[in-house]
Amino acid sequence: MGDLVFITGQMPTVPETNEMLLGTFTEQTHRVMQNLAIVLEEVGSSFEHVVQSRVFITNMGHFDEVNRVYASYFPQPLPTRTCIGVTGLAGGADVEVDMIAWIPPSEGNP
């Protein structure tokens, strides 16, 4: 039947250095989504199995920019999503995303 994984908010942190990528909203969103892809793969899931996510951004004027990058990581239809404008995020980041995803049963393991 599979399980769910609840992924806490991912920031635009570069895994190799553990330093925050404080570039443009586009650059930060790509880094956040790449970090989420790493977590999803590690638990045996993928963007195809995301059932809900929450996107936090510090400037809603960049919503379309963030949304384009975010959507590019998913097959259609997109999972349910909430986008929340916030006054600040940890480490000076402008983008954070958390997710709930389904972990499908592995081959030979129902």
Automatic annotation (TrEMBL):
One Pfam family in the UniProt entry: Ribonuc_L-PSP
Alphabetical list of SUPFAM superfamilies matching this protein: YjgF-like
The species this protein was found in: Vreelandella janggokensis
CDD domains hit by this protein: YjgF_YER057c_UK114_family
Domain of life: Bacteria
InterPro entries the record matches: RutC-like_sf, YjgF/YER057c/UK114
Classification via PANTHER family: 2-IMINOBUTANOATE/2-IMINOPROPANOATE DEAMINASE RIDA, 2-IMINOBUTANOATE_2-IMINOPROPANOATE DEAMINASE
Listed Gene3D superfamilies: RutC-like (3.30.1330.40)
Protein's UniProt name: RidA family protein
